[in-house]
């Protein structure tokens, strides 16, 4: 099997989303670091793969693909028989996976990623966290997690009793937030907390954390 080439920066949550998907599938890959500090994501040869100059991007044979969720969907479908099944074959079950994958991208991630930026990325960059913005974002995320708590009172994972792409796409940002005071929002909701601890404890994520470290 030819190696999938992954272009990215190791601590980027979207990049880690792709890597954890590859690890779940047990697929070989070659990680090619894109030096964002030097602006290489906005230069050739990278913009020949993603003209928008954003990471991650992959090359799988003659296929060039970007946008992390598009990539994880491709991996889940294109390598369905490898490793962990991430998408069901039953149309109704698939619809629920798609629903919660959309909820992740449209309801959870916009707020959670902003919190991650304020509480994780800004300190790394030597920037000052906007605590007023953090307070506002916490209220928004709490409302989203209330919906998750209700859902997870009915099933072990978001789309049912089986881990799926809908759960996987959450992992990098949930992991970032669990290293901050935002963890308390998850812990206050027992079903959400059990779910989060479950997905963060997956061997695929532990492998991703070991491999995707930033060398200073």
Q: Topology, pairings included?
A:
Layout: E1 4-8, H1 13-25, E2 29-33, E3 57-60, E4 63-66, H2 68-78, H3 91-125, H4 131-152, H5 165-168, H6 171-178, H7 183-187, H8 190-200, H9 203-211
Parallel strand pairs: 1-2
Antiparallel strand pairs: 1-3, 3-4
What report would you give on this structure?
With 216 residues, this protein is α+β, with helices and mostly antiparallel strands. 55% of the residues lie in helices and 8% in strands. The chain has nine helices and four strands; from the N terminus they run βαβββαααααααα. The protein has helices at residues 13-25, 68-78, 91-125, 131-152, 165-168, 171-178, 183-187, 190-200, 203-211; strands at 4-8, 29-33, 57-60, 63-66. It has a four-stranded mixed sheet with strand order 2-1-3-4, with helices on one face. Helix 1 (13-25) links the parallel strand 1 (4-8) and strand 2 (29-33). Helix 1 packs across helix 6 and helix 3 packs antiparallel against helix 4. The longest helix has 35 residues, at 91-125. The protein is globular and about 45 Å long.
Observed structural traits:
globular; 216 residues; 4 strands; alpha+beta
How far apart, in Å, are the first and last alpha carbons? 33 Å
As a percent range, the share of strand residues is 5-15%
The percent of residues in helical segments reads 40-55%
Shape: globular
Q: Give me the side-by-side strand order of the main sheet.
A: 2-1-3-4
Order of helices and strands: EHEEEHHHHHHHH
What is the typical, i.e. mean, pLDDT? 95
Number of helices: 9
CA-atom Rg in angstroms: 17 Å
The SS-based structural class is alpha+beta
- Strands, count: 4
Report the biggest beta sheet as strand number plus sense, adding barrel if it closes. Answer: 4 strands, mixed
Unreliable stretches covering 5 or more consecutive residues: none
């Amino acid at each position: 099997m030819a190696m999938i080439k992954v272009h990215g920066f190791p601590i980027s949550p979207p990049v880690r989303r792709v890597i954890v998907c590859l690890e779940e599938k047990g697929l070989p890959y070659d990680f090619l670091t894109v030096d964002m500090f030097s602006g290489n994501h906005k230069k050739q040869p990278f913009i020949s793969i993603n003209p928008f100059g954003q990471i991650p991007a992959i090359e799988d044979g003659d296929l060039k693909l970007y946008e992390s969720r598009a990539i994880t969907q491709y991996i889940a479908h294109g390598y369905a028989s490898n490793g962990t099944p991430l998408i069901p074959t039953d149309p109704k079950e698939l619809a629920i996976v798609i629903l919660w994958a959309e909820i992740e991208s449209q309801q959870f991630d916009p707020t959670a990623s902003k919190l991650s930026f304020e509480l994780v990325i800004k300190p790394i960059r030597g920037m000052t966290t906007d605590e007023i913005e953090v307070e506002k974002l916490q209220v928004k995320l709490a409302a989203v997690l209330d919906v998750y708590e209700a859902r997870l009172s009915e099933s072990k994972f978001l789309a049912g009793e089986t881990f799926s792409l809908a759960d996987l796409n959450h992992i990098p940002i949930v992991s970032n937030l669990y290293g901050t005071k935002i963890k308390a929002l998850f812990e206050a909701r027992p079903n959400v907390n059990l779910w989060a601890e479950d997905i963060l404890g997956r061997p695929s994520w532990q492998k991703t954390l070991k491999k995707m470290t930033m060398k200073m």
